[in-house]
């Protein structure tokens, strides 16, 4: 029986590999062509700014003094403080590295709360009185802590997933490379943000999924399902943003970008953000569905398309139900300060939900969720079709069991033994 099963697997393998290659080659060619046509012709322009240079330093000492309120400034306008006085900082970068300078302790909302030994970033300012230069502490240095956190993240991934964790980290590097070298420069160069997002997402998928999960039929099914779902998400995003009259300029950052780079289509940038934001969760859904259907077909080879599709869809429903809550909580977490501000101002619910800033997040959540829902039946159907076809080919190619040889009865065996004994 094991020999027949191995023969069936060998018969089905060429079919799976052929389907993978037939899908992979056109996808790679179309993605490469899209990137070639949309690739930015000019580097991202670097605008000259009047921002003061930054230097690094370390806190050495404090000189506290009582806080005095500025004339005409109310208690509400002053806001919270982190103490009054001066702080001595030893510079660790720049031309004056090694020297110790004195500056005011930062105050006001969001000001860094300093302690002895803290490594900080300072702005070098020109003193308008002509007495030389002055410094202002603006932030902490976080590079060391972020490097340690990144190393812990990488070690945790590799320790748990081993070699697959290494490939996952390599895929993460590819994702950042596509974002920084293609998607962002192409959008700044005036290309269509939606086309750039779709082509860039396809490049990320084809590289990351095959790098992480290998050149297998399950990976090809996941990539195909993700591509179709992303296309549906892009179309729905265009319809939803047009129908709700969203401009893509909902906060100060978007407003500044629209002024500084007038060639950028802000509504298209919003659509691109929805597509790219949906990609990460879509990968999870499609890979899970494809692998689930494949395992079901392996566990029960008698399952055909209908049984595989029904079983895979039941699992997909449970997955989608949990993912929807994840998406809503993720958007609520990032928008929590905004929600608190509206709640403290007693803003009517209708006005809160229909304002562009919140409506933009509602459209993003709704469209992304619909894209995820469409990914389940599409990916499950593709996986069930290929798995059932491979099972059929394997069943046709497996050798038919031959007729068992007739076994002699017990009396015939004894007779043969007696006859052989008599001949001796």
Core attributes:
424 residues; alpha+beta; 5-stranded antiparallel beta sheet; 9% strand; elongated
Describe it.
By secondary structure, the protein is of the alpha+beta class. 66% of the residues lie in helices and 9% in strands. The chain has 13 helices and 5 strands. A 5-stranded antiparallel β-sheet has the order 3-2-1-4-5, with no helix packed on it.
Gap from first CA to last CA:
41 Å
The secondary structure category is alpha+beta
Alpha carbon gyration radius: 32 Å
Oligomer: single chain
What is the helix content? 55-70%
Q: State the total count of DSSP E strands.
A: 5
The largest sheet, given as strand count, sense and whether it forms a barrel, is: 5 strands, antiparallel
The string of secondary-structure elements, in order, is HEHEEEEHHHHHHHHHHH
Fraction in beta strands: 5-15%
* Count of alpha/pi helices: 13
| Rounded average pLDDT | 78
Q: What gross morphology would you assign?
A: elongated
Within the largest sheet, what's the order of strands? 3-2-1-4-5
Outline the fold blueprint:
Elements (H helix, E strand, L loop, with lengths): L1 H37 L15 E11 L10 H4 L6 E7 L8 E5 L14 E8 L6 E8 L2 H19 L1 H26 L4 H21 L3 H27 L8 H9 L5 H34 L5 H30 L1 H9 L4 H6 L1 H42 L12 H14 L1
Antiparallel strand pairs: 1-2, 1-4, 2-3, 4-5
Helix pairs in contact: 1-5, 1-12, 3-4, 4-5, 5-6, 5-8, 6-8, 6-12, 8-9, 8-12, 9-12
Summarize the structure.
This protein is of the alpha+beta class.
């Amino acid at each position: 029986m094991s020999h027949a099963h191995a023969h069936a697997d060998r018969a089905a393998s060429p079919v799976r590999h052929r389907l993978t290659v037939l899908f992979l080659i056109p996808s790679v060619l179309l993605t490469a062509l899209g990137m070639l046509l949309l690739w930015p012709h000019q580097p991202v322009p670097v605008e000259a700014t009047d921002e003061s240079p930054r230097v690094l330093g370390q806190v050495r000492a404090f000189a506290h003094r009582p806080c005095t309120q500025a004339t005409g400034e109310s208690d509400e306008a002053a806001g919270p403080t982190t103490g009054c006085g001066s702080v001595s900082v030893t510079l660790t970068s720049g031309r004056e590295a090694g020297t110790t300078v004195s500056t005011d302790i930062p105050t006001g909302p969001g000001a860094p709360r300093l302690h002895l030994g803290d490594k900080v970033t300072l702005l070098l300012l020109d003193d308008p009185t002509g007495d030389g230069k002055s410094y202002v502490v603006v932030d902490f240095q976080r590079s060391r802590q972020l490097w340690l956190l990144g190393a812990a993240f990488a070690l945790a991934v590799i320790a748990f997933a081993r070699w697959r964790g290494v490939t996952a980290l390599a895929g993460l590097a590819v994702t950042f490379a596509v974002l920084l070298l293609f998607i962002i420069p192409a959008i700044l160069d005036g290309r269509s943000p939606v086309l750039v997002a779709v082509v860039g997402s396809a490049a990320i998928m084809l590289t990351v999924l095959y790098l992480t999960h290998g050149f297998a039929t399950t990976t090809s099914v996941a990539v195909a399902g993700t591509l179709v779902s992303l296309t549906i998400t892009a179309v729905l995003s265009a319809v939803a943003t047009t129908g709700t009259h969203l401009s893509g300029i909902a906060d100060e950052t978007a407003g500044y970008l629209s002024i500084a780079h007038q060639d950028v289509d802000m509504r298209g940038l919003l659509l691109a953000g929805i597509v790219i934001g949906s990609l990460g969760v879509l990968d999870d859904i499609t890979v899970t569905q494809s692998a689930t259907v494949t395992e079901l077909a392996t566990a029960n080879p008698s399952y055909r398309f209908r049984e595989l599709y029904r079983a895979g869809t039941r699992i997909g429903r449970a997955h989608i139900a949990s993912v929807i809550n994840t998406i809503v909580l993720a958007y609520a977490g990032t928008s929590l300060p905004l929600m608190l501000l509206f709640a403290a101002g007693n803003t009517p619910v209708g006005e809160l939900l229909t304002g562009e800033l919140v409506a933009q997040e509602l459209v993003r959540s709704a469209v992304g969720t619909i894209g995820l829902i469409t990914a389940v039946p599409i990916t499950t159907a593709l996986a069930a079709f290929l798995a059932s076809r491979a099972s059929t080919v394997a069943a046709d190619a497996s050798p038919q069991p031959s007729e068992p040889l007739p076994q002699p009865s017990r009396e015939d065996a004894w007779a043969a033994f007696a006859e052989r004994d008599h001949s001796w």
